[in-house]
Amino acid sequence: MDLTLATREEDGRAIVAVGGEIDVYTAPKLRDQITELVSKGSYNIVIDLEAVEFLDSTGLGVLGGGLKKVRAHDGSLDLVCSQERLLKIFRITGLSKVFVIHDSADPSVAS
What's this model's pTM, rounded to 2 decimal places? Predict the structure, then answer.
């Protein structure tokens, strides 16, 4: 399965809706998207993982790297995820304490 990315701007934040699988083969596509947004001056990014079917350690690394990039500019990288199987990965790895995780896109763009 491939990775789909759809980026939109909303309330001064870049929202990247991700679909498919984030793995060793597709994660560079997401990394490149985050890098491009930061290079264009978008430092408040929301990654919407609602349509993600699989996430491995490479994908977690890309999200962590993205967080470092935006924090270097006093920005934020929030996640939208309500899928228990993905949330479990964030809890097990301790990343649920690192990322702000919303259960829908609405609250994350309202703030």
Answer: 0.93
